[in-house]
Design goal:
Layout lengths: L2 E12 L5 E10 L2 E6 L2 E10 L2 E12 L2 E10 L4 E6 L1
Antiparallel strand pairs: 1-2, 1-7, 2-3, 4-5, 5-6, 6-7
Length: about 90
C-alpha cells in the first residue's frame, strides 16, 4: 500500500458509544470526484499520530473492477477523515 494521506468526505454510521462505521467516501482527483462504497471493514485499531488520537479502519472495496485494501483514519479531536493508504 502507498501512503497518500488525502482528506476525504465520508458518510458514516455512528454507534451509541460514538465509534463511527464508514459506509462510503468521496475523493477528489484533480477535477473529478469518485465515490467508493466500503464493502468490508477488516480491522479497527486506535493510534496516536502526532499526539492526536485516531481510529484506523483497514477496509476493502471494489475500485475500478479491482479489489483493493486501504486505510481510513478518523481523527477524534477534529472529526476529520483521511484516506491514509491505498
Amino acid at each position: 500500500m502507498k501512503v497518500v494521506a488525502k482528506p476525504i468526505e465520508v458518510i458514516a454510521w455512528f454507534k451509541t458509544d460514538g465509534v463511527p462505521k464508514p459506509l462510503r467516501f468521496r475523493i477528489n482527483d484533480n477535477d473529478s470526484k469518485t465515490v467508493i462504497k466500503v464493502d468490508r471493514i477488516m480491522q479497527i485499531d486506535t493510534e496516536k499520530l502526532a499526539g492526536n488520537p485516531m481510529i484506523v479502519f483497514r477496509c476493502q472495496s471494489l475500485i475500478n473492477d479491482v479489489t483493493k485494501v486501504y486505510e481510513l483514519k478518523y481523527e477524534l479531536t477534529t472529526c476529520k477523515w483521511i484516506l491514509y493508504k491505498i
